[in-house]
Amino acid sequence: MKIAILSSEAVPFAKTGGLADVAGSLPKALSELGCEVKLFLPKYSYIDESKFGLRYNWSVGEMLIRISGHLRSVHLLQTTLNSSNVEVNFIDCPHYFHRGLIYTNDHDEDERFILFSKGVIEALQRLKWAPDVIHCNDWQTGLVPLFIKDNYNWDRMFDHTASLFTIHNIGYQGRFSKSTLLSAEIRSNLFYPGGPVEFEDTVSFIKTGIFFSDMINTVSKTYASEILTPEYGAGLHSVLSKRKDDLFGILNGVDYTTWNPATDKHLPFRYSKENLLGKHKNKKFLLEHFGIPFNENVPLIGIVSRMVNQKGFDIFAGALQDLMQLDAQWVILGSGEDRYEEMFRHISHILPDKVSTYIGFNNELSHLIEAASDIFLMPSRYEPCGLNQIYSMKYGTVPVVRKTGGLADTVQDWDELNYHGYETGNGFSFNDYTSYALFLTVQRAVNAFHHKDAWKKIQLNGMNRDYSWRNSAKEYISLYEKAIKKRR
Ligand code: ADP
Ligand code: GLC
To answer: What is the dihedral of CA 16, 167, 120, 153, to 10 degrees?
Structure first.
């Protein structure tokens, strides 16, 4: 089966969040199961060509792509995804992608991803490689299913190419003014109230993806049913309901060659479930690094997150005073909205022995926090899948989460009232999106930390879980088969 996977970010080349982890690891798992996979990414200026061995594909040559009336010069660069058979293709167009950031607030953000989408299709034409499935991810690639079925349908090459649209986060929709129709050369008769590309008088990339793709999925079973409701659908629940028979939930897998405490190259001390000594050493190392006094009897709570509303920082703020009364220490890594960055800076400033905050993006530190923490907090308002709770489990770090989306599908609440040694709970979770529920659950975890036998059991229950890609990649293959069947 030939699969083209399109993403705006992928590890190790460009990352802002979990999409990059998925796009950098699913292709390898598919390839190991026998698929021929090509991954497509924009060539952002900071992707180091020599470090990653990128080469120009001279046989593809210069592609001239018209966006908003201008012909843009586009080239294809290629490499392989570390130690795999996956070919990575970069759409190189300096005008749009030499901006220092993956996502911008620039006036032509729509054009950047129209160019990427058309660049992929034209590169496929020149490579004479017709995929069985084009797998699109998030709004940035939402126009591709339409382009295949309309703008490029003159090319018989794509007659049998099916499309899958994966929604990693329905909160980000890619909505632009009507002028986008001209930039993308979308037929204007597709834009009318309630029509396939229109949403509240804007051109919606995500809605277009939902409408024109052969199959749709999201990244956990619970989130797939949540987005059919007004509470979680971000306005698109009725659009999705019309396609609910084609909507599936496939839990993200994780790449245990990168996220494994026994081999993690970012850790000063490695460890495994057989011997957790290295975990304690990492905790001491991290706390000393941040100037927080180490005490093995005080639990360390870690947070690594984009600091945005989705992640539950408003209820965290509401519980802040009570949380800071708990006998626990905190290490926080993230960046995002000013008000949340300011909140964390402020508490670190007034409680320097208790809280340390690093504002910014730091991959190495994210691994160290996973390894060093006793508890990992993710109080998300919604969470399509969430990867950090899955990494936490592998690192013997107990997740405390709100029971939503992928968090509900992976974290099973520990029942401390019925502890007999064989319980399967691997973390702590709460239902109500309130500061009070959040506080009580963190408090439960902090209390449980002092019951060493029970705590060890919770850690091992998490460490014994297997969230490698193998199972989820097989689910993707059967969904690709469904998409192909539908297209033909
Ligand atoms: P989302 O994609 O919504 O941000 P996920 O839990 O799926 O949430 O994935 C987040 C990914 O981004 C994880 O790999 C996490 O470690 C990483 N991450 C988030 N914030 C930072 C940061 N400030 N520095 C380093 N890595 C980060
Ligand atoms: C999104 C979601 C997150 C998910 C990730 C990868 O960014 O917010 O829950 O894990 O995509 O699918």
So the answer is: -160
φ, ψ for residue 272 (rounded to 5)? -145, 180
Task: Please answer whether residues 182 and 68 qualify as being in contact, where contact means their C-beta atoms are separated by less than 8 angstroms.
Answer: yes
Which stretches within 150-292 are classed as H helix? 180-184, 205-212, 221-226, 237-241, 277-290
Verify whether ligand 1 is closer than 6 Å to residue 18 (CB atom).
yes
Distance (Å) from CA 391 to ligand 2 centroid: 13
Tokens standing for residue 69: 């009336």
Backbone phi, then psi, for 483, in 5-degree steps? -65, -45
Residues in contact with 338: Cβ distance below 8 Å, sequence separation at least 6, in sequence order:
none
The answer on pLDDT for 228 being more than 80 is yes
125 C-alpha to center of ligand 2: Å?
Answer: 31
Indicate the domain borders of the chain.
2-253+470-487, 277-466
Share of the chain above pLDDT 90, in %: 98
Give the CATH number of domain 277-466. 3.40.50.2000
Fold matches, 2-253+470-487 and 277-466: yes
Give the torsion through C-alpha atoms of 430, 311, 365, 11, to 10 deg.
110
Q: Which CATH class is domain 2-253+470-487?
A: alpha beta
Torsion-angle region of 405 (φ positive above 0: left; ψ -120 to 50: alpha; else: beta):
left
Per-residue pLDDT of 108-155, as tens digits, reads 999 999 999 999 999 999 999 999 999 999 999 999 999 999 999 999
Q: What SS3 state is found at 156?
A: helix
pTM for this model (two decimals): 0.97
Mutate to test the pocket of ligand 1, among 166, 167, 385, 387 (most ligand atoms within 8 A of CB): 387
Question: Which of 165, 387, 467 is the pocket-test mutation for ligand 2 (most atoms within 8 Å of CB)?
Answer: 387
pLDDT at residue 221 above 80?
Answer: yes
| Strands annotated E in 7-48 | 36-42
CB 366 within 8 A of CB 390: no
- Please state, in angstroms and as integers, the Cα–Cα distance from residue 364 to each residue in 14, 215, 265, 266, following that order: 15, 36, 9, 6
What pLDDT, in 10s, does the model give residues 360-384? 999 999 999 999 999 999 999 999 9
Give the separation between CA 6 and CA 23, rounded to whole angstroms.
Answer: 8
Please work out whether the CB of residue 170 comes within 6 Å of at least one atom of ligand 1: no
For residue 378, the ligand 1 atom closest to its alpha carbon is 6
Q: What is the mean pLDDT of residues 461-487?
A: 97
Write the pLDDT tens digit of every residue in 379-431.
999 999 999 999 999 999 999 999 999 999 999 999 988 877 778 899 999 99
Ligand 2 site: residues with CB under 6 angstroms? 17-19, 22, 168-169, 219, 252, 383-387, 406
* CB of 250 shorter than 6 A to ligand 1: no
